[in-house]
Amino acid sequence: MYLESGQWQYRILLLYMLVYVNDILCILESPNSVLKVLNKYFTLKPNAVGTPDIYLGAKFKLMQQENDVWVWGISLSKYVTQTVKNCKYYISKHLSPQSSWKSWHPTRSISSKNQG
Fold first, then answer.
1. Which residue of 38, 75, 84, 97 has the fewest C-beta atoms within 10 A of its own C-beta?
2. Spatial contact of 31 and 13, defined as CB atoms under 8 Å apart
3. pLDDT, tens only, 1-36
4. Residue 77 Cα distances to 10, 22, 74, 101, 115, angstroms
5. 110 to each of 10, 97, 101, 102, 105, how far by Cα in Å?
6. Nearest to 37 by CA among 29, 23, 22, 26
């Protein structure tokens, strides 16, 4: 609520803030004002404030819709690609043709006495 031309005006303000450990994503019409306040209490990295590119492995992109409305799009392709690479690496290092399921995952047993 603010005063303009002698009349009280109301404005709805939507703020989305995602925080994970030391990563902050602030979604707001003018996020710099919120980030300046945060910087008083929690030191933000210099030059880290800006248009989001990647947050927690997800790519962000500003896109214009057919009706000329600008929206943020999110893609998990980078996250999924990295996860697949990590799985391939882990399997190549820990699961060879000579190894068995039991040696790869010792907390589970595939013996017949444990089944059923």
1. 97
2. no
3. 555 677 777 777 788 888 888 888 888 878 888 888
4. 40, 22, 9, 30, 38
5. 65, 17, 8, 7, 10
6. 26
CB atoms within 10 A of CB 10: 6
Nearest Cα neighbor of 50 from 19, 78, 26 is: 26
Neighbours of 38 (CB within 10 A): 16
Alpha helices in 1-116 (DSSP H): 31-41, 77-94, 101-104
C-beta of residue 77 within 8 angstroms of C-beta of residue 57: no
Dihedrals phi, psi of 99, to nearest 5 degrees: -85, 160
Q: Which tens digit of pLDDT belongs to each residue from 39-91?
A: 888 888 878 788 888 888 888 888 999 999 988 888 888 888 888 998 888 88
Residue 27: C-alpha distances to residues 18, 30, 53, 71 (Å): 8, 8, 13, 11
Of 52, 47, 1, 60, nearest to 31 by C-alpha is: 52
